[in-house]
Every structure is written in C-alpha cells, then in structure tokens.
Specification:
heterodimer; A: mainly beta; six-stranded mixed β-sheet; three-stranded antiparallel β-sheet; 11 strands; 46% strand; B: mainly beta; seven-stranded mixed β-sheet
C-alpha cells in the first residue's frame, strides 16, 4: 500500500534562512506527488505538483525516485510561509490521494 | 468558479447520536473524496467516489459510517452512532477526472465534536 512519511512534525526557521520540508513515499507504481499547504484559518490548497516542475511562492520540489523522496525547498523563508504543509501521493491510474501527517513550519522574524 | 461547499461548519453532538455532513463539489468534478482529519494529523481518506460509484472505501468504518453521492453531484457522510474518537474535521474535496497533475480542491471542512 502507498504511504507518505513526513518525519518532521514541527520545523522552525528564521526569516531569510533556507528551509527544507522532507517527504518520503512508498509506492511500487508511478506516483504523482503534490505539496498542499494550509494557512491559518484557510482551507487546504495545492502548492505545487511534481509533474509541473514549477516554482510557486519561491518553493520547489524535485521527485527523486531513487530515494523515493519529494522534499520541498525554499532558499529564503518568509514569515508568510508559516503554515501546515502536507505531502500527498496519488496512485498512477487511480484517483486515490493519500496524505502525510504534515509539517508545521514557523518562520520567525 | 465556486469552490467546494460543506455544511455545517461546526457540529457538537453527544456520543451515540447520529450526524450527517453535506458536500457540494465544484461543478463538473467527477471525483469526490471524504477525509477525516484528527487534530495534529494529516487527512485520512475515508471514501472516494467517481461520479456516483464508490472507488475506494477501504478505510471507512462501515459499522458506523456511511456515505452516498446520489446523481453523482452532492454527497453526504453520516455517522451513526458517533463515538468520542470521531471528533475531527471532516473534509470534502473534488477533482476533475482525467490528466495527471490535476489538483483536488478542498472545502473548509466540518468540525465535529463528540462529547
């Protein structure tokens, strides 16, 4: 069965520092990987997806199939990046979408 | 476009009572998900619909939870009878089917407290 692991429950950095939120997955097929974000009092929303190879709000994530990882990175964290971040996996060919337990990022001034 | 709508936003019930949640997905979205999010944890998939058919309900506690999606549009999730451990936020999400990378859109959730 597919599984998504986010090893850090909490992550705290200072403004301007680099940040990396870790995500590892286990799935035997071809996965689609996503990062979702939930800002305070807002609904869960998509941040980025591996297939687009995009940079959103300065965040990037690269799918590493060898290490089965999809870590989220930003070179210079901003206070407005403080939020809950969830890594998610969708099975190829299926619509099933599975989430990790999330990492709470706090960016201190 | 209008987002995923859920109601009620909050609900407090006593254990052993029943409760129902409603979700209206984005128009045209064939895939609908119900998630349970317990405080401090990630969303846990309960059930997934494709139009009005169930695709996956492997983690739905079927002795007390039920869900339906009549006509392939709106969906309801019911708990009967509720237990204390059912206290959580229940999230509904929808997604247009087809094509890799398409995103799931979430509602604001229903916060259930069982006392």
């Amino acid at each position: 069965a597919q599984r998504v692991t986010q090893p850090e429950k909490l992550l705290s950095v200072f403004k301007g520092a680099p940040v990396e939120l870790k995500c590892n997955y286990s799935y035997s097929g071809s996965p689609e990987l996503f990062w979702y974000v939930q800002y305070s009092r807002q609904r869960l929303q998509l941040l980025l997806r591996h297939i687009s190879r995009e940079s959103i709000k300065g965040f990037t994530a690269d799918l590493n199939k060898g290490e089965t990882s999809f870590h989220l990175k930003k070179p210079f964290a901003q206070e407005e990046d403080s939020a809950m971040y969830y890594c998610a996996l969708r099975q190829g060919g299926s619509e099933k979408l599975v989430f990790g337990k999330g990492t709470k990022l706090t960016v201190n001034p | 476009e209008a987002g995923v709508a859920q109601s009620p936003r909050y609900k407090i019930i006593e254990k052993r009572q029943s409760v129902a949640f409603w979700c209206n997905p984005i128009s045209g979205h064939a895939t609908l998900y119900w998630y349970q999010q317990i405080l401090g944890q990630g969303p846990k998939l309960l059930i997934q619909f494709q139009n009005n058919g169930v695709v996956d309900d492997s983690q739905l506690p079927k002795d007390r939870f039920s869900a339906e999606r009549l006509k392939g549009v709106d969906s309801t999730l019911k708990i009967q009878p509720a237990k204390l451990e059912d206290s959580a936020v229940y999230l509904c999400a929808s997604r247009i089917t087809g094509g890799p990378g398409t995103e799931a859109f979430f509602g604001q959730g229903t916060r259930l407290t069982v006392v």
